[in-house]
Amino acid sequence: MKTMRFAIVLGAVLLLAMTSVSFASTLDDIKTRGKIVIGTDATYPPMEFHDENNIIVGFDIDLGRALAEVLGVQAEFIDTAWDGIFPALDAKKFDIIMSSTSITEDRLKSKDMSDPYYKTSQAIAVRKDNDSIKGPNDLNGKIVAVQISTTGDFATSAIEGVKEIRRFDTTDKAYIEVMNGRADAVVNDFSEVAYRMKLLTDMKVAAIFNEGQDNYGVTMRKDEKDLLAAINEALKKLKDSGKYDEIHGKWFPKVEK
């Protein structure tokens, strides 16, 4: 009897331990390991990109480190191609995504996203000798280059009469397509296009549309309520303290349309 009673008690203890482990949240894991792992596609200046020393830098990177500091942990970034970044999140390769990820109804069906932390618009970039495109309607009959599965891709797909949409895994390839005369325009977030035009002196911003409709959010797996609340609280603290404005000013000192 004593042996049976001991076995029952031991079983209950083991079950309780297993239950506690199985219900440990991602936020608990982050706090335990002292590190939040962040997925990013570092091909998107000034938000996330490799500098001349091949170090990942950018607005999202600085903001991610600041968020980690508020959470009391370190930040580790994993560079991941955009077309595989959401499956990698689902596979738990990282805890969150910070990669200029727009909050969309479709994404919210399978992911949770934080309160918006950056607002932008869509922009059309063309070669400087191209004066035929002054707005989205002028893309009628044109070939447009985009990064696949981005809001630039979605916005272009919604424009009637576009002759062809050429989709690439990076924005670099989209710009090369236009510079080499194989496409008429690039459509992408204004934050990225404005920065890129400082580097691509043979191109210009032809038009801005869907102004202020594109909001970036921190992305995480569905129903991680503790992590979502912690990220939102950390974002608020960074804005209230002025740290957010400091980071924003570093990467966007003055953006002229």
Report on the architecture of this protein.
The chain has 257 residues and is an alpha/beta fold. The chain folds into two domains: 2-117 and 217-251, D-Maltodextrin-Binding Protein, domain 2, CATH 3.40.190.10; 121-214, Periplasmic binding protein-like II (D-Maltodextrin-Binding Protein, domain 2, 3-Layer(aba) Sandwich), CATH 3.40.190.10. The chain is 40% helix and 26% strand. It has ten helices and 13 strands. A five-stranded mixed sheet has the order 5-1-6-13-7. Strands 10-9-11-8-12 form a five-stranded mixed sheet. Strands 2-3-4 form a three-stranded antiparallel sheet, with helices on one face. α3 (59-71) packs antiparallel against α10. The longest helix has 21 residues, at 2-22.
Which descriptors would you attach to this protein?
single chain, 257 residues, alpha/beta, D-Maltodextrin-Binding Protein, domain 2, 2 domains, five-stranded mixed β-sheet, 40% helix, 26% strand, elongated, disordered N terminus
Radius of gyration: 22 Å
Instruction: Kindly name the structural category.
Output: alpha/beta
How many domain units?
Answer: 2
CATH superfamily of the largest domain: Periplasmic binding protein-like II
Please count the helical segments.
10
